[in-house]
Amino acid sequence: MTSPDLGDTTPADLEHILATANTAASEWAQRPAADHAAALVAVADALDAAGAELITVAQAETNLPEARLTGELKRTTFQLRLFAEMLGDGDYLDARIDHADPSWPMGARPDIRRVLEPLGPVLVFAASNFPFAFSVMGGDTCSALAAGCSVVLKAHPGHPQLSAAVGRICADALATAGAPAGLLQLVYGTQAGRDALLDPRVKAAAFTGSIPGGRALFDLANSRPDPIPFYGELGSVNPVFVTRAAAAARGAGIVREFVASYTMGAGQFCTKPGILLVPAESSMVGLLAESARPAPARLLNDRIQSGYTEALQQLRGHGSVQVLGAGDGAFDAPPAPSLSTTTAEAILADPEGLITECFGPTALVATYRDEAEMLAVARMLDGQLTATIQGEDTDSVAPELVRVLARKAGRVLWNQWPTGVSVTYAQQHGGPYPATTAPTSTSVGTAGISRFLRPVAYQGLPAHLLPGALRDENPLGIPQRVNGVL
Amino acid sequence: MTSPDLGDTTPADLEHILATANTAASEWAQRPAADHAAALVAVADALDAAGAELITVAQAETNLPEARLTGELKRTTFQLRLFAEMLGDGDYLDARIDHADPSWPMGARPDIRRVLEPLGPVLVFAASNFPFAFSVMGGDTCSALAAGCSVVLKAHPGHPQLSAAVGRICADALATAGAPAGLLQLVYGTQAGRDALLDPRVKAAAFTGSIPGGRALFDLANSRPDPIPFYGELGSVNPVFVTRAAAAARGAGIVREFVASYTMGAGQFCTKPGILLVPAESSMVGLLAESARPAPARLLNDRIQSGYTEALQQLRGHGSVQVLGAGDGAFDAPPAPSLSTTTAEAILADPEGLITECFGPTALVATYRDEAEMLAVARMLDGQLTATIQGEDTDSVAPELVRVLARKAGRVLWNQWPTGVSVTYAQQHGGPYPATTAPTSTSVGTAGISRFLRPVAYQGLPAHLLPGALRDENPLGIPQRVNGVL
């Protein structure tokens, strides 16, 4: 899929890129956060200015409609500006100052001051399904640049021309804003990505994609003589639990909303609700069989289409699974949105055979006989990005269901839908494995910056050698925790 | 070394322990932080009350003197109380509330609220060199319990009777304080530790010890079908850089302080200064050769003694290394404190042969010819727990040296010594690999709690289903970041 002009990065080119990224990281780390913020805004402005041109390139490479791409670009540039705003606050630095204290109960305390500092060059693996928001200038790149790191971006083969165009525009904008050369550079090809991941100059990596792909890179990062943090966002089936009360009160409305969510973007979102649990006695299965579904839409590329067909064939080969609506066109290209059914009992008997992520416009509807069975399914889940409850305020099962799901998922939703992940201060896009390889972090929202920062303590340093964030006079005007008090 | 009464944990016993730890984790996670705090204080009180008895057991098993053990127990119980105090603050929960906002620039924002929640059962591998402070009720256990996790503690074979006694006292105190049964349980034996690390109920692990041991467990944790966070504190040589100005101004004083630091605790600290860089032209090497050193002290156990002898023999076999003071008794048991010398030039030519952690009362003194050579050594260092500068305020090399060392080490010291790691709010005990396997975290200080917490976001939940930390009326009275503003 790589175009002739964008051949795989050669080892010699990669060496030059990594050397430059290393120098750029040192320079960028020493710049004030205000410089980092200004550069992010400059990049956002440049991308907005080039929007029409970029969206044309993206449409040609991804089959995604213009309206969707327009919204995604808006999200991307909004994210850059939101991170720039956060840099002005400075709370993300977690600055702590402990003055020397001879009466500290465990023994005299020295003067210790601690702040978060950039990790160094970060390798980002772009995703296919968000050619703007999780690609060259997506959330991982934005977080790493905001943290003061340089970025080596492994372009996704699904949109090489768009990657090159975005990379060029962003690099130009960064240079104009005074950033060091090579702060953001692109590499192409699987081998270049693997080689970069093993290079000692790379200090962290981020990835959004499939479980097998992400696991292979996670293992590679950990195989290094000096393992590095690997922030992989891998897979999730995003279960939805419909309580009996909710099914009785508004089953038809839930069906409509569910169909809209699992078919959004032709089902190519990591937060697509892939499993819907409904009470067996309700009319919801019938409503789902008859539900109006949007027209078929082409998937991102041929590889996604064939992966979708394979995963769906495997699921439908399971003895417990039936198609909801015959002759549903699920295996056509483009595939028609389609649903399958099974039971909670079957899931409990064979979770691995039935709970698998299937990227594309399909979902599995599972009927449960009682709340105990529904809770049992919740308890045996692997890690998830999201878990959703459709319930009523009076539901007695809700507190326990929330508790169980909060142990499994990074985000728990109530009477809303997981697709459409807003970029906010409180957003959490993560979860236990296999949702991610780093359950203590997020890849969406302002908290994502902490992935690329590490704490450094300074003991006994004279003021002129301390970072500004740790000086008593607080020249940056940021929140400081002094002797334990913010 | 395991006593007959404390044989290796059997698979059947381990299964029971893990099942109990899992149940305890669920219960403990739902208790308010005030309960967690009260339990930590109860444990501290119980350990203090049993101090004399415990110190007698510890002396018999570790060769450590009474005064040192008394101070270490004080540190241990102080740490528990400091964490209890932090739980009352609630800032560590990083509570964030984003209200729904239809005018959010990227599109209408839902109500999203995010808080840190306990990871689940934590497996802690105890260290040998701090039988109180990094063992059964050490910093890792304290952090995990404070976070709301249960703990399975792999006892160190170096002090099994003490481990059992501390475990019993702590379990009793926890039970009396109302904690669930099995909140803290001990396992014995290498195989039980490995089996526990691979068990799906264990959600994180912490380790303090050697590079080979820690790396093997890190690899095991990552080999799981569902990898978990592994917080390993492994190895560090803790370099000390003496500038020309400092050597000229106070070389004799630096020599005295350095000897006190590298021989403290018979050199069995992870922060022992293992390499001292001094200007070649100064009188410091001569002063170091003639320096008064404390009497030999027995090492923790036979395994440490033989490991020390091997590491020192290997170092002394290096062509560039000479003994500083002949017939120095370094290979006796107990070993006399001893120094060796080499040059910065030799280190730059063969870093792997010369920069190795050697647990015991020895250090390597390296002479540099000019500041460029000193900086070159700083730049080629692996990750370190600490790096120290002995300098003068007027040193022109200091700013660059601080910058370089801050990229290498978790803690940078100025005119102080790395041994004696105070437990404070701003402490940072960590660093890039091989100092640790998790450079974004700390194993000492109140920030260590975040290792055992993961963020969970709640979207659209009614107030009665939200955790207290995320309710608008803020019943816990903790810091909340509302719509991005603290």
Give your account of this protein's structure.
The structure is a homodimer of 486-residue chains. The model of chain A has no long low-confidence stretch (mean pLDDT 96). Helix content of chain A is 39%, strand content 16%. The first copy, chain A, has 2 domains: 8-234 and 438-481, 3-Layer(aba) Sandwich (Aldehyde Dehydrogenase, Chain A, domain 1); 240-414, Aldehyde Dehydrogenase, Chain A, domain 2, CATH 3.40.309.10. In chain A, helix 2 packs across helix 6 (160-176). Chain A is built from 15 helices and 16 strands. At the A-B interface, helix 1, helix 4, strand 1, strand 2 and helix 8 of A face helix 1, helix 4, strand 1, strand 2 and helix 8 of B. Strand 15 (453-459) of chain A pairs parallel with strand 14 of chain B, so a sheet runs across the interface.
List keywords for this structure.
globular, 16 strands, alpha/beta, seven-stranded mixed beta sheet, five-stranded parallel beta sheet, 15 helices, Aldehyde Dehydrogenase, Chain A, domain 2, 2 domains, homodimer, Aldehyde Dehydrogenase, Chain A, domain 1, 486 residues
Shape of chain A: globular
Oligomer: homodimer
Under CATH, the topology of the largest domain in chain A can be stated as: Aldehyde Dehydrogenase, Chain A, domain 1
If strands are numbered along the chain, what order do they take across the biggest sheet of chain A?
A: 10-11-12-9-8-13-14
Number of strands of chain A: 16
- Give the proportion of residues in helices of chain A: 25-40%
CATH class categorisation of the largest domain in chain A:
Alpha Beta
| Low-pLDDT runs of chain A | none
Cα Rg of chain A: 24 Å
The greatest interface here is: A-B, 93 and 93 residues
Q: In what range is the share of β-strand residues of chain A?
A: 15-25%
What is the count of structural domains of chain A? 2
Mean pLDDT of chain A: 96
Task: Report the span from N to C terminus of chain A.
Answer: 53 Å
Can you say what the CATH homologous superfamily of the largest domain in chain A is? Aldehyde Dehydrogenase, Chain A, domain 1
Q: Strand pairing plus helix content of chain A: what structural class?
A: alpha/beta
